[in-house]
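Ops channel
N.P.: pipeline sanity check, posting one input/output pair.
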């Protein structure tokens, strides 16, 4: 990463993250902030960044990653999910629990050039096991006693700047196929969220707790991830239409997140949900970890490209990886938009045309006529090249 200096970004097609149409304007960055946006800005001797032929957008925000590097089966290094792919801010979703988060706060978060925040797993041990190909198959809630609310609350109160809220993984196999263990996690994550005044995220797939029960419990500002997962308990009917509880939850202000992962995005679910019934995600995220980094997820721009293929407008896709996740993290005052006074987090993207294979978690491939590729990224005024895309 180059040293932070003033920059003037010229010639690009600017999507400000709001979901509004793009504009041909210049963007001035000074002292780690966006200071001016407008047509034909006059250089003041700062570095001029030629964005001709490129899209200019807020730095990408990935609302669902696992980057507690060195801990457990899943985690990758923040580098693999971050600036090299155009991502300037990421949210680790429950890799750490109350017994392990102090080390994440000490060794991972301060060393990453990206901003890394986290959701605390309601399970004290966090997400360290739970892959069926790596025995013994034991998950976060293998023992319901791991869902220890006082420990979670104490941890969040100890690290209030780094911990955005709480997370639970509701999958029967991660709870030793014992519904009592799942209920302990379900009840515990809401108790911790209420006691700390923070939002929560629920992973729900192949669970013994009904999807309607989960959807009805979620509050405004909470996030339901793995929206288009292929398990029998996803939230769409046999025709692909959203069930009533899903529509009710969205009307209440619940956030619906992609969380692609290695098992949670299937074309056969996403295509009818989006294309026929218009149930688009609020936020687009990767659930990036060791088992999907080299496919089918790869990175956030690849996941964005899947929604371009589905027909989501570019401005909406960009909003779903900028302003929308910033709002979910309660950070809209400084990231997620290209506006004067916001952090100088910017990504330059190339919008390519051709035929690009995009594969889901079931091994089904669609060929998209377009994709976005990260070219370069600026984090609080410091520029670096992106190397994430081939």
């Amino acid at each position: 990463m180059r040293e932070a200096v003033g920059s003037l970004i010229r010639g690009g097609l600017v999507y400000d993250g709001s979901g509004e149409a793009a504009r041909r304007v210049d963007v001035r960055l000074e002292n780690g902030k966006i200071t001016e946006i407008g047509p034909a800005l006059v250089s003041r001797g700062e570095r001029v960044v030629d964005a001709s032929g490129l899209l200019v957008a807020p730095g990408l925000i990935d609302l669902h990653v696992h980057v507690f590097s060195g801990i457990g089966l899943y985690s990758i290094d923040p580098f693999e999910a971050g600036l090299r792919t155009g991502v300037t801010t990421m949210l680790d979703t429950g890799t750490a629990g109350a017994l392990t988060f102090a080390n994440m706060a000490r060794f991972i978060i301060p060393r990453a050039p990206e901003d890394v925040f986290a959701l605390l797993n309601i399970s004290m041990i966090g997400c360290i096991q739970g892959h069926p190909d790596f025995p013994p198959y034991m998950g976060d809630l293998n023992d319901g006693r791991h869902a220890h609310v006082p420990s979670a609350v104490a941890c969040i109160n100890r690290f209030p700047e780094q911990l955005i809220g709480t997370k639970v993984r509701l999958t029967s196999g991660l709870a030793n196929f014992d519904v009592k263990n799942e209920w302990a996690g379900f009840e515990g994550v809401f108790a911790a969220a209420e006691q700390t005044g923070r939002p929560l995220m629920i992973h729900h797939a192949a669970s013994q707790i009904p999807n309607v029960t989960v959807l009805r419990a979620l509050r405004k500002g909470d996030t339901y991830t793995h929206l288009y997962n292929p398990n029998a308990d996803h939230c769409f009917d046999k025709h692909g239409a959203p069930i009533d509880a899903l529509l009710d939850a969205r009307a209440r202000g619940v956030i619906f997140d992609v969380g692609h992962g290695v098992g949670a995005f299937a074309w056969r679910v996403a295509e009818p949900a989006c294309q026929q019934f218009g149930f688009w995600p609020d936020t687009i995220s990767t659930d990036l970890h060791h088992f999907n980094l080299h496919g089918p997820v790869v990175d956030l721009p690849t996941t964005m490209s899947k929604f371009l293929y589905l027909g989501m407008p570019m401005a909406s896709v960009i909003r779903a990886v900028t302003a929308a996740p910033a709002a979910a993290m309660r950070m809209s005052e400084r990231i997620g938009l290209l506006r004067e006074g916001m952090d100088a987090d910017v990504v330059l993207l190339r919008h390519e045309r051709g035929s690009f294979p995009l594969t889901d978690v079931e091994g089904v491939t669609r060929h998209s006529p377009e994709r976005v590729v990260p070219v370069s990224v600026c984090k609080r005024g410091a520029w670096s090249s992106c190397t994430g895309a081939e």
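N.P.: looks fine end to end. The chain has two domains: 7-57+341-385, 59-328.
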